[in-house]
Amino acid sequence: MTKEHPQNAETAKKVHIQTFGCQMNEYDTDKMLEVLRHENYSQTNCQDEADLIILNTCSIREKAENKVYSELGRLRELKSANPDLKIGVGGCVAQQEGKAILRRAKNVDFVFGTDNLFELPEMLSKVAEGQKISRTERHARQKVRNFIPDYTFQQAKNFGVKAQIAITKGCNNHCSFCVVPFTRGVEVSREPEHIIAEAQRLVAAGTREICLLGQNVNSYKANGTDFVELLRRLDGLEKLERLRFISPHPKDFHAELADAFVTLPSLCEQMHLPLQSGSDRILRRMRRWYTMETFYEKVALLRDRLPQATLSTDLIVGFPGETEEEFEMTMEAVRNVRFDLIYSFKYSARPGTRAAEYPEHLAENVKSERLKRLLETQEKIVREKNEALTGSLQEVLIEGKHHRKENTATGRTRGYHSVSIKDCKTKAGELLAVRITGANPNSLIGEALSTSPVSG
Ligand code: 5AD
Ligand code: SF4
Questions:
Q1: What is the pTM assigned to this prediction?
Q2: Closest Cα partner for 415 from 355, 359, 341, 358?
Q3: Which domains does the chain have, with CATH numbers?
Q4: Å from CA of 278 to ligand 1 middle
């Protein structure tokens, strides 16, 4: 054990964190692990040997929320077998439900909201004294705040080839279906220097690809630095090969950001642009602030500059009042844009949101049937697009060994396609020139063009 590493193997306690939901929750889990590492905890993948179990929860759809209570039910046995085990619930469900979780699940020791994860040490010492804790207070409203303490990235030892950095938290948009503004609060941007310091630590520790995170990244603004300027500054970091971001809002995607894809070498030719629906009436009711016409213009901003850029999106089917014709408009948008990847969801009413109060909620079987048709349409598009990539030359960032196939490495193209490469000796973190030789439904197959990495 080194000096700066607070962990001591003999006395270290073990923590298991189960993460539900989005990339922001994954990022928060990494930060919780970092906070707990400073409290002499080490991570375990096995719940049975844990002294502390934390569920980092998601409430974006009802299904995700229900998982939390079924998981807590399962943990009841573990707690009776080991009364010293402490159980905490964090994340979006915790933010919304607070004390109600303590009442409903007696085996839970503490509940903490999305603004409170850095108070874990203090909460744990109270829990050790036998107290039950619920902490969901919000920080004061501030447009700019360094909501990630520096010490959580000072050593950055445990990070991989790819890493994420939160640049904003919260959201001011209030799309009518979405619970996030309630669970994560108003939008706050981090100071650029703070973000760059985190990126520098990561790159020094071996990270080659950084994905910037936020609910609406392109509305980032802090100390006179806007999103494009932040990208420019990060692009200048030596050894940072690739830069991405999720998620931009179409209403804030403009020509200057599209230009950045051309002028910044590290910014990958790939973007996630959540559409949600192909019908202007539904988009209005969703409070998305764009029409299909303006969405197509945004897509053109990127594709006119970079025809090879890959595009992914989020779509909701069965929004309250969505007619068959309006659903068909979503299908048409998918056929027109030909996204490389879609994340599609059945609408789920979320307490407190405007859409939950709208009339004409659709039956579950209608939503399921529409989702099925959407997925079938998209499957065909992906198959065709993947086949079109066969024979192409791609730069792949090697991430490591394939988890199932022997002697095979995996990595991703700049367009974010996953590629498996047989007989590949290239180390994780290196770039490799790869010829695409075939495609599976969700990934590509390639062969290394040379044993030497791509330069630059
Ligand atoms: N029901 C279904 N999908 C939702 N999303 C957000 N809220 C809901 C909801 N109430 C989807 C949106 C968003 C993604 C992260 O989750 O498509 O972009
Ligand atoms: Fe939710 Fe809309 Fe904000 Fe995205 S932009 S987090 S969908 S409110």
A1: 0.93
A2: 341
A3: 13-135 (3.40.50.12160), 153-387 (3.80.30.20), 393-448 (2.40.50.140)
A4: 15
